[in-house]
Amino acid sequence: xxxxTEMLYAAAHTGVIFDYxxxxxxxxxxxxxxxxxxxxxxxxxxxITADAGQDSMLVVWExxxxxxxxxxFDPHPFGVIALDITPSSQHIVTLSAPIPASHARGKGPTGxxxxxxxxxxxxxxxxxxxxxxxxGEGEEGGDGFEDSLEEEGKKxxxxxxxxxxxxxxxxxxxxWTAPDAVPVCTALIGTQDIQTCVLFNxxxxxxxxxxGRRRVFFWTFRQNRPFEFYSPALSAQDFKQAVAxxxxxxxxxxxxxxxxxxxxxxxxxxxxxLIVDGMSRPDERRAVKIIQLxxxxxxxxxxxxxxxxxxxxxxxxxxxxxFQFRIxxxxxxxxxxxxxxxxxxxSEEDEDEAAVAHAGGAEEDFACPSFLVFTASALVVLxxxxxxxxxxxxxxxxxxxxxxxxxxxxxxxxxxxxxxxAVGGYSGFVHLWNYRARALHSARAFDRxxxxxxxxxxxxxxxxxxxxxxxxxxxxxxxxxxxxPPRGVASDEFCFSNNPVALIAWAPDxxxxxxxxxxxxxxVCLYRGPSRSDKHGRRGQGHGQTEWRFAGKHRSxxxxxxxxxxxxxPAGQGKGGTSHGERENGGEKEKEKEKLRLVSVGEDRRxxxxxxxxxxxxxxxxxxxxTCGSTIIEQEARPSGCLWFPRGSRGPDQASVLxxxxxxxxxxxNVPHKKCRKTVxxxxxxxxxxxxxxxxxxxxxxxxxxxxxxxxxxxxxAHSGKSADDEGVLLYSCWQKVLGLVLKxxxxxxxxxxxxxxxPGTVAAMAVDxxxxxxxxxxxxxxxxxxxxxxxxxxxxxxxxxGEGLDPFLSLIPGGAEGSFFSEMKDFFYYAQIxxxxxxxxxxxxxxxxxxxxxxxxxxxxxxxxxxxVNFEDTFKLFVNHRPVFAVTPExxxxxxxxxxxxxxxxxxxxxxxxxxxxxxxxxxxxxxxxEMTLEQCMELLVGExxxxxxxxxxxxxxxxxxxxxxxxxxxxxxxxDGLQGGQSxxxxxxxxxxxxxxxxxxxxxxxxxxxxEAAASSRSPAQPLSSLVR
Length: 1031
Known about the structure:
By secondary structure, the protein is α+β, with helices and mostly antiparallel strands. The chain is built from 16 helices and 61 strands. Among the domains are: about 695-710 and about 720-790, no CATH class; about 805-880, no CATH class; about 890-1020, no CATH class. Strands 11-12-18-17-16-15 form a 6-stranded antiparallel sheet. Pfam families: WD40.
């Protein structure tokens, strides 16, 4: 039988079965959290994956089909950090992630109770699920199990009340072939030494061992008997030497011995001893000797295979020892980094060969199956035993079969014309991968610099790189060589900010590139490209070569910049067209419409446009970067990103930008007039949308396939009757976990969007390839880049099946079409019709099922026409798109009062000061009752009392205002914000800062009165639970 050439590894929350001969991957998907433990049966038939975190899972997979055969939900309260499977493949042991002792919970029919003392031995009792305790118990276990675990947790909390870390763990044994999902037995580990390793004794499957940094536990479980354990004591005085931290433990075959590796290269041997020391019993192992194997090298891997003990070290070497720890072979020239795991190739013949080898015999040459070495440098090296006899070091390095990412990845960009994706990591690398050939195209390593942003130029010849240090580079996209700063010039001379590069934006003709820095120096920098004859960065000869230069920077925001975008080229202005809107035969309006624009959006709620016109000055000087104006675009919500949008809409409203915010809204702003044209509800899967990218359609793919030749989009629109924005797809991501698609035009239809869990944590960046068939995401700290296939057919089918008109939107209101809420909306609409034709009249009415509209630009981007009247269907859509996704709670009102009254000054405000806030700041109440409702009129409607003194009293409290004036219900449990940075405490700090800036006259325009709902924006919870995306 041919040896298997597949290996299993974890990539964030996905298990990957990788054939290193063919390069083919099979994905094991379904986990919400990062996979923290992997296992494999001896015959390689069953694979096990487990994760740690909320909503954790343990899944058993069949390797041949890559399909799950058993899923155990919540095997431990916070998941699993280590597991093992018996040689018979019947039982699985899991070691839980640390949990607070007071929260100790588990799954199973009975409790776990430690009866031993605090010394080195004891036993834990747990009834077996085969006994009477399992009768009548469901998957979630019985009350006895929960009660006893809670009691044990309280005991552990009391025992450890004087210790800083009151954590405990549990160890469980599962019969995964049983129909239920309860453990055979479970025990709590109350030691403060967090256990990190667990394994079965392959020669006695009823015994297992766990170890942490300072303690080793030996456990025994049997049917219908207590779960027993003991922990041998070991101190420096026992062997007259210091004992380093433990790493891993193994059982030695055909003996009662076990061995534990240490972080200093020693091995501790545990064995039974007849010598009475007063600390252990004769039937319990204790430390009998310490062997120094690899001085000053952490023994990170220990395992038994065939007749060898295999040890992998932090020095990158793999060594083979016999069971007396005599060296047999060593592989010290791999040079791939510290060893993290060793796995051997498997074939059916291996078992017979292992039996013969284990039987012993005459001394023979070293031989073993080929093995894989997994290293801390994210490399997987295939090593053959014959390399041991090679003479030259270069011949003993093995073959690298997989190169991963060894550092957090926050930078990602797709080439606009080729099947290339650029990836940048914090270890200083920039890799250019061909994702069709699945091969590394080119690489570049930066010394002492950490890439944080990447962006290809639209022409595809340049790659912009932004670093955490504030440095900015332009590279040639073919070989990643320097284009800017010039060669031979110190890069520090061209570093114009010491804060990380957060965003990079290219002009559509590759003539400019803008860079946003976040940190203490929040600014936008602009770089101008070479002359028109060489604007794509071609390498010239002699005097023909031109250079990029820094044009200027502007500190236009006082909070982090979340969006930066250039305008797109107007239709018909393509590769050979003029740039900057400077047509020879165009008027001023044509120039204004087609000029190149740059906008930025910040968390300070400002939309800033920049003046890109270059002054008539010496070409060696810069004219600086100036703004054309700044507009406040939000009152309560905080913007989370922006995208130039739409691309080719009809009518005069072409210069628009789509702004996302943390209140789950998408708003289209007209840039020249600074007016909001449309507001729709954003997808609400797990958090606010913070990034959006257009997915190239068939027309754009065809255009790129012909080398960038443009078609006349206006002619196409006239022929089809639809704008370029009427159809298409947008790719979006949230700050955490979620990636999704939404169909255009944007109208708030929940059936036109979908989402999936792309990463277990942060979605650091995303990109779309030039064909629109693939999307790429990187997960930051999880060191993973995922490639996703884009298929819009199911999404379009779901949108079509949801119906037309109001049908898709009815799920957004309580009760749907049959609920009282919908009925009341109809009544109010009919009443509005009557009032629009004068309520006090006896004349016959002619109702046309429409009412006057104030939001006249709701469809202006698509049609170029204002709407002055709407029917009930349009009114309903406007309502569900404009209303807040989450209602304001009394807790948020309380936080807002704290912000208004000043930090740590309570939640009460004098009436005069509070009324001043409402009349002078934010959306002010005026005294002109002819045009707007006054504060007194509003108070009369709310409480029936127009007199402010009687309605508010001398002091206005948060609880009184929320319950008595606003009429909010009883307080509900506050949920943690799932959006922008921080939580309620940050919102309080931000609102307080705005008040202080107002009082000191700093910061220009502010929204201090909006602090009453500032806190509301800070405690948003996902509209849909993440578990709904995977279960």
